[in-house]
Inverse folding.
């Protein structure tokens, strides 16, 4: 571990440490809350076919909204961290990876 620490003190890796430190924790926790009743408009034929198949509209809509929120959150994170990722790529191109000396290929 000491050898790794010494290598991180080199100028290239000091920049890397700043980039990593600048990142944010993306973990998300969902608090259980009371559900909210909403109104949704569907084509009548589509509605009836889904009901006939036993599709749970609440569960389906909840899942679809969660997926859209996750996608929007990922896109926002990428926009927010684009500059840091570009800097990380520049550091990697200039200095290589920490694991380069251990690669077997």
């Amino acid at each position: 571990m000491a050898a790794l620490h010494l290598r991180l003190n080199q100028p290239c890796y000091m920049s890397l440490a700043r980039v990593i430190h600048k990142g944010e924790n993306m973990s998300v926790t969902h608090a259980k809350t009371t559900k909210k009743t909403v109104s949704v408009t569907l084509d009548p034929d589509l509605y009836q076919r889904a009901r006939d198949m036993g599709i749970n509209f609440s569960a389906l809509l909840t899942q679809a909204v969660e997926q859209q929120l996750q996608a929007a959150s990922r896109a926002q994170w990428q926009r927010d961290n684009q500059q840091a990722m570009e800097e990380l790529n520049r550091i990697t191109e200039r200095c290589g990876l920490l694991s380069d000396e251990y690669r077997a290929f």
The chain is about 65% helix and 0% strand. The CA atoms of residues 39 and 58 lie 11 Å apart. The mean pLDDT is 79.
